[in-house]
């Protein structure tokens, strides 16, 4: 029996040594590959899914990953998004949370960090964190044409796919949310809500916002909102109902003087498609 135990110990030691050797050998081989080898392997797969990826430089990231610099990503039918750096890696420590796949995108001070379940090509759950992202980082017509815009301080979200249906929840803080006011009778052309704090949840194809807090021209704002069919941006519809508190304070009082001298309350309603949201004031 003692001999048998020593044999098992020697076998385990030999097996561990073999695994470490193969890992070191594989890493050594990977480090000697041409810079564009990984990118050339990945690009056809992404192109088949409607994503065109180019990078000025690519290299293997220790211990198991790839780092791209000078990245351009374009999804069919949309302008390309340019990134300073993109890193995709597999982190064994992430298995404790069952989120080992890790993707980080960087552009200037903006960062998007995603963690996925092991089957990253078809993940069942994940987490996302956005910091410093603004509408200027996204060259989409909704921001360049409509006048809408935003600036994220931080957004955290968790999501899960069950039976083909998406469920998610999260919260975020924004420096501002901005919407155009197209009404010809309005003395202002845009409504900007500053210091926004909100929570959200996703059920199916609808994004619900049960809490929105912020300020408009020095007056406190609160309310709720919803974006239906948000998974299909061309069909998505936006509806937000925001209440302007103490409307006789700050610059909102000037709006009352110009638009509704007899009104005592003010609401800010944001409606329309996701591609062309618009804001309108309601006085009563």
Walk me through the structure.
The protein is an alpha+beta fold. Helix content is 19%, strand content 50%. It has four helices and 14 strands. A hairpin with a 2-residue loop joins strand 7 (149-162) and strand 8. The longest helix has 31 residues, at 2-32.
Mean pLDDT equals 78
Order of helices and strands: HHEEEEEEHEEEEEEHEE
Radius of gyration using CA atoms only: 25 Å
How is the biggest beta sheet arranged? 14 strands, antiparallel
Task: Tell me the fraction of residues in β-strands, as a range.
Answer: over 45%
Total strand segments: 14
Class by alpha and beta content: alpha+beta
Q: CA-to-CA gap between the ends?
A: 90 Å
Question: What's the topology here?
Answer:
Layout: H1 2-32, H2 37-48, E1 51-61, E2 65-75, E3 81-90, E4 101-107, E5 110-116, E6 125-131, H3 141-144, E7 149-162, E8 165-180, E9 190-203, E10 206-216, E11 219-228, E12 237-244, H4 252-259, E13 266-273, E14 276-283
